[in-house]
Amino acid sequence: MIYHNLMELIQENEQAIIEDLNHEIKGMEETRHYRNLPEETLKEMLHQVLYNVYKRLSNWLHNNTSKNVVFAYYTGLGRQSCQEGIPLEEIIQVLFTIKKKIYHHINNNRTFDNGYTLNQLTELFYYVNSFFDKIAHAIIVGYQEELTIKACA
User: Fold this and answer.
1) pTM of whole model > 0.90?
2) What is the rounded distance in angstroms from the CA atom of residue 54 to the CA atom of residue 8?
3) Which of 40, 60, 94, 141 has the highest CB neighbour number within 10 Å of its CB?
4) In angstroms, how far is CA 23 from the centroid of its own chain?
């Protein structure tokens, strides 16, 4: 039930979350390369991450969805970002900013005040963190693979 509420919260607030993230990311000094991205490109990237959280996190955690599907998408994103010259630290900063924004929405939503134990909330945060850690790892792998290809060319 707690995962279902998280998925609904993100899905129902996706556009607001994307707008908040778009504004925040474009204004951060740590993500200056994202300022040059067309707004629709950044919004689509943000949508993909949120989509993976609200559509795939629960299944992924329960081994109903191949971890390779998610890993492949983010490995490709890492390669593409390297090709586009976006520094790896900025990509990871954006990822952490997305995670922080999700936590912000959980904290501000009263749905999570009703009847959940501390253990359930701790478990939820653990799995969301784990999911984002796997995403970060896949991005780094793809980015490094692309750097290796460039170095060998």
Assistant:
1) no
2) 7
3) 94
4) 16
Residue entry with tokens 């997305």:
98
Q: pLDDT tens-digit profile of 28-86?
A: 999 999 988 899 999 999 999 898 888 777 666 666 556 677 788 899 999 999 999 99
Cβ neighbors of 130 (< 8 A, separation 6 or more) are: 61
By the 8 A CB rule, do 57 and 128 touch? yes
Q: Which of 11, 75, 77, 81 is nearest to 47 (CA)?
A: 11
Mapping DSSP onto H, E and C, the string for the chain reads CHHHHHHHHHHHCHHHHHHHHHHHHHHCHHHHHHHHCCHHHHHHHHHHHHHHHHHHHHHHHCCCCCHHHHHHHHHHHHHHHHHCCCCHHHHHHHHHHHHHHHHHHHHHCHHHHCCCCHHHHHHHHHHHHHHHHHHHHHHHHHHHHHHHHHHHC
HSE toward the beta carbon, residue 129, CA cutoff 13 A: 6
Instruction: Confirm if 53 and 46 have CB atoms less than 8 A apart.
Output: no
